[in-house]
Design a protein that fits this description.
Chain lengths: ~425, ~425
């Protein structure tokens, strides 16, 4: 089932259908999205004047200790003395910060169930998880408690909650939004991303943070839009059915430009057709980087983790670190090939996730669960390619949201956002 | 004065001229390059078999506490539990690690004079500084104590010591060598780089760490080589004179391809012609990122710093953080324009530094000293553009080395290294 009008307010209607509430009636307490509430006024006036935002508790706010979703982290780190760069950028563009939101522990889960701080509400599907690790930021936006929110995305931590909660979520091109003041997890994949209910708001935030427009350049033109066969094939049939009318609409809007393409063709390598290849590249590099970034703290502080990160960490520690070079070699080969194939004009189209949000307490966080084995290859493609990816909240399985994603070559965030605007413009 | 034969062993001859020693006679103690000596055997056999290397003490080695050049840092951090990713890559390629080398405190100087741990020997100019912040790694290579060494380069910390010590130094494209397990200083500029006396060795290390070659692609072809007018103009006349015959040789090797070009032309913006523009972009973003990365530790641990970082930190704290967005906007504009102008075939050519190594104890570390005001705009261009830059040890002012640099578009490290190989091949 898809919302045939591709209306930007689909989420809000879905929400009121389910909860029998208008969005404005969801309280802070019902959302459970925040770990801390405060007000930081804007430092200047600008393109984000009058907007409010929230910040994932993995990103520094001066005077507050960034908790990273874990009480031991909170207790073993000093307060931030300055804001993260991305927060200073947003405040200087006119927006008002209203608090910090729950993250999965050390950003290491796609579920959004924090053992210590709870599970933020997914207002579009209250019996289901919001998705993680940027769970509170997605919830705060979906519950209309803020206009937009900052999250981080290493392996899907913005895209998956955006899909689950039925909101827009951008993972920008790797390396453009500063990570200074953000907990490092896996630096060659880490990005700061953001959520909004409204594409115009998302665009305004993108223009503040990235910034993406060259005043001397014309608007980018759209070439091919490649529907990635292997990633649609990984999706549940209900998800495939839900996304079919959205894709049909995409074909209609960009007639003659939408085609089915294989990852093997784009990468010029048969190994790219196998989801397990992407899973391995992502996991080996993410896991080994994570231990380099956080291993010393975990060893010295001996934090108590909930079951989801504990299971994940066992898995991470099993990697043979002398093999990391092989994962890097394949990652860089696929990254070069993908970016070469996309060039300045082409896009990928893929399901944001292969399934709708799992039910709460499903305990599917084993790293070899069907959920992870199918989701990570889908999210890994943009990670490996350093591509910007936008999740569009345009699909529904029954009343439960599912995102369709577009991705572009590294640095082409503007093309991506322009295509989304063109696609969803009223006709 | 330039070594007219462009001989790769220029450094070694210079050294023996000055010290009256052959390189192999310089002892560990004379070099003062190491903070710690140990042996880590390779984990596999590969393309770096039989080579030895050293690691800047900003990069993790399992079981050792990374000291970052400051005793308080050493005392307030737990030992690393795993190696940094780049170290694991190198060990798996067959090289043997022989120890950790001195860094300037928190990597925040271009001089290489560490108040706590001393000044590593610049064997090519023993009365002058080795350059920093990767001072010990440059010294260890220049003294022939190792075949190559890992450093980091945020604002010149590999390129400047390579120039000062008369060795090869590569700052790779931003974002390709993992920074996991490396102290973050200013993430949108931070890179892991490396030094060697021999270009073949440098190439082997580059192929292990990056990796840069696509087996399906042919060798890259060279288009234009742009001599950057504004940056040559910033150099001392002695440096200009020293580099002239090297540039003449470049014109001879790549006849018809070498031309004088302005940064204003490459960036399509008159502001780019002013070195102060590059200085400001670099400093505002580097300084604000640095406080986001290290401010909380500095506040809570109250480290004792030597005079050079202390003076620098006063300067860093003076930035108005609400202006960081303006620096980012200009940085991204220039980055896009530079990369667009270079494309897949063209290169920049610039002096690595505008001066030879300063004399030791010159106390020129005030951030508004002539040294910093002229050096940072030269090193900032590749930082802002995310460009790979190679310093070639081909110039000499009297007997003191000065590097000539080539830079390429982001991701084109292979082009850069191939051009250097072609340039220095025996004729």
């Amino acid at each position: 089932m898809v919302n045939p009008s591709l209306n930007r307010d689909a989420t809000i209607r879905t929400l009121s259908n389910i909860l029998g509430l208008t969005v404005s009636e969801i309280t802070l307490e019902q959302s459970g999205a925040f770990v801390e509430r405060f007000t930081l006024p804007p430092t200047r006036s600008g393109s984000l004047d009058d907007l409010t935002f929230a910040v994932k508790d993995l990103i520094d706010i001066a005077g507050h200790t960034t908790g990273c979703g874990n009480p031991t982290w909170l207790a073993t780190h000093p307060p931030a003395t300055v804001n993260a760069i991305c927060v200073d950028q947003i405040l200087a563009a006119g927006a008002r910060c209203v608090g910090k939101t729950i993250t999965d522990e050390i950003a290491f889960s796609l579920f959004g169930e924090n053992h210590h701080y709870g599970t933020p509400l997914n207002p579009a599907a209250p019996d289901r998880v919001p998705g993680g690790s940027s769970s509170g930021s997605a919830s705060a936006v979906a519950c209309a408690l803020v206009d937009f929110a900052l999250g981080t995305d290493t392996g899907g931590s913005v895209r998956v909650p955006a899909s689950n909660c039925g909101i827009w979520g951008l993972r920008p091109s790797h390396g453009f939004i500063s990570l200074a003041g953000v907990m490092p997890l896996a630096p060659t994949y880490d990005t700061v991303g953001f959520f909004a209910r409204d594409l115009n708001v998302l665009n305004r935030v993108a223009n503040s943070l990235l910034p993406i427009a060259d005043p001397a350049a014309g608007p980018p033109t759209v070439g091919a839009i490649h529907l990635i066969k292997e990633l649609f094939a990984l999706a549940d049939s209900a998800v495939q059915n839900a996304l079919t009318p959205v894709v049909d609409q995409l074909r209609h809007t960009f007639h003659g430009k939408v085609r089915e393409t294989s990852l093997a063709e784009l990468c010029g390598d048969v190994r790219a057709a196998n989801p397990a290849t992407w899973l391995t590249i992502y996991r080996v590099l993410q896991g080994t980087e994570m231990l380099s970034c956080l291993g010393a703290w975990m060893e010295s502080a001996a934090p108590e983790f909930g079951p989801a990160p504990s299971v994940g960490l066992q898995f991470v520690r099993s990697h043979d670190r002398s093999r990391v070079g092989e994962a890097i070699a394949l990652r860089e080969l696929f990254c070069r090939r993908l970016n070469g194939a996309l060039g300045p004009h082409d896009l990928l189209c893929l399901p944001t996730a292969p399934t709708i949000a799992p039910l709460k307490n499903s305990k599917a966080y084993d790293r070899n669960s069907d959920y992870y084995i199918r989701t990570l290859p889908v999210t890994a493609v943009s990670g490996v390619g350093r591509l910007p990816q936008l999740s569009l909240p345009l699909g529904q399985v029954g009343t439960v949201p599912i995102g369709l994603s577009l991705a572009a070559a590294h640095g082409n965030d503007l093309l991506l956002l322009n295509v989304a605007k063109q696609f969803t413009a009223p006709r």
